[in-house]
Write a structure and sequence with these properties.
globular
Length: 459
């Protein structure tokens, strides 16, 4: 398909989604699943309008998925407003570390014993499929900065951390395959890829985001400027945090996520130090985002230059415009990439993904989540849902394309087929189950709140 064909296809999809959004929201299916079906429809399997060879286009896929992930990670970090000491983060840390590691080992063991793949290749696929997706999980992640739901917080924090935390294990698998056995290289891998790269990426991104956040808010407030291009600010911070971390040998994905957290930290400090009312000031000791509402929630539609005399209003404008830009970019990238998944899965479909997906979605992740989330400040329903919503997507495509562009050639077609097929199954299975489960969960939360309020009134 030529440029005009692609333009027509994308325009038709965007028009369809824009006009039918009210109907789609009532359907028990996510927009990602619809994009997947559209990709299948234009693939060689149905109308044969587009044929994409992932292996031949691996470099393009690597950069495209890289952009999608870092934009999503930054916006995801910007929405997480609670301090890292808040109990809501506990589940995220457990999901992004021990649960992810168990998922890698579980997938590797399944592939080795079920399909007789060697251990190094199996471990690589485990690492590729380990990270949950920040791009496709919008339905179950934190919706805005005032959202403190423990289930959403755990899944959002997990997607932010494990998209970078999985990278060392992809590198480990590639080194294992190249060296053929364990040896002295393990020590160098651990020192560089874990001891240095993880904390360095997080610290670099956080302090860069916090510093630029304070500077942007101060300039906006000082000059009462309501026309600054905050989309440029977001892109600059994403680029600088990513490139800066990679330059010093740290993980860029973690740095971008932490940059979002750091920028939000600057907003939180601004709101705390400049309360809009005495009521807000009296709540300063509460460990909650509701103690000092997000600055973007305190900004109305008609902001003029005089409103920007107050630092909180200036912070609200900056943050709200960045989030608006980021969510638009995220949706556009999601449309393009999931349609490409549908096209590629029609070419690379591998039946072995069915038992693997069943093991990962129904056994490995749920069991690991139940074990490691015990004694965390989460309820039974929240732990069950966090175990279920381990959505695989664009992050896995990035790791797969990265492996292919960094020397991985043996069994490449097997890796591509299994990865695309598992992602497609995740989009379908999780997509069909998301809306009914979330509706049930929200009703359960509402019922619990009503019961608690009734008990308080009796007292």
């Amino acid at each position: 398909m030529d440029f005009l064909g692609w333009t027509a296809l994308i325009g038709a999809v965007l028009l369809f989604m824009a006009l039918s959004s009210a109907y789609i929201r009532r359907m028990p299916i996510t927009t990602s699943a619809i994009y997947l079906f559209l990709g299948l429809a234009v693939s060689p399997l149905v109308f044969n309008l587009i044929n994409v060879d992932f292996i031949e286009s691996k470099v393009k896929f690597e950069h495209l998925t890289e952009i999608a992930v870092i934009v999503s990670l930054f916006i995801g970090g910007l929405k997480l407003r609670l301090p890292l000491t808040n109990p809501a983060w506990t589940a995220a840390f457990r999901l992004a570390a021990p649960v992810m590691l168990v998922s890698i080992i579980g997938v590797a063991a399944f592939l080795h014993f079920a399909f007789n793949f060697d251990w190094a290749f199996s471990f690589l696929l485990g690492a590729v499929l380990a990270p949950t997706d920040p791009v496709l999980a919008s339905e179950v992640s934190v919706s805005d900065a005032a959202d403190e739901d423990r289930m959403s917080y755990g899944l959002s924090g997990e997607a932010g951390f494990n998209d970078g935390a999985a990278f060392p294990f992809v590198i480990f698998a590639l080194l294992w395959m190249n060296n053929g056995d364990f040896g002295d290289w393990i020590g160098g891998w651990a020192l560089h890829r874990i001891v240095w790269a993880i904390p360095a990426g997080l610290l670099f991104g956080f302090f860069l985001g916090k510093g630029i956040g304070h500077l942007a808010i101060w300039i906006r407030n000082r000059h009462q400027d309501n026309e600054s291009p905050n989309d440029f600010l977001a892109l600059a911070l994403i680029a600088l945090s990513y490139v800066g971390a990679e330059t010093v040998g740290a993980w860029g994905f973690l740095a971008v996520f932490a940059a979002g957290l750091g920028f939000r930290s600057a907003e939180v400090k601004t709101v705390k130090e400049n309360p809009l009312s005495e009521t807000d000031d009296k709540k300063s000791d509460e460990n909650s985002s509701n103690a000092h509402p997000p600055a973007e929630d305190l900004v109305g539609d008609g902001i003029d230059e005089k409103d920007l005399k107050h630092p909180v209003k200036a912070a609200g404008i900056v943050v709200s415009e960045i989030i608006s830009f980021g969510e638009t970019a995220e949706r556009l990238l999601e449309v393009m990439l999931v349609i490409l998944v549908g096209i590629c899965v029609a070419v690379y479909w591998d039946w072995r993904a069915i038992p693997l997906a069943a093991a990962l979605f129904f056994v490995i992740r749920p069991l690991a989540a139940q074990i490691f989330l015990l004694k965390t400040p989460t309820g039974t329903k929240q732990r069950l849902l966090m175990g279920w919503f381990g959505i695989r997507g664009i992050g896995s495509l990035y790791y797969l394309s990265y492996a292919l562009t960094h020397g991985f050639e043996e069994n490449a077609k097997d890796a591509v087929g299994i990865t695309f097929s598992v992602i497609a199954l995740s989009i379908l299975i999780h997509g069909i189950s998301t809306q009914p489960i979330i509706n049930w969960y929200k009703k359960a939360i509402h019922k619990n709140k009503k019961q608690k309020n009734a008990e308080i009134e009796k007292i």
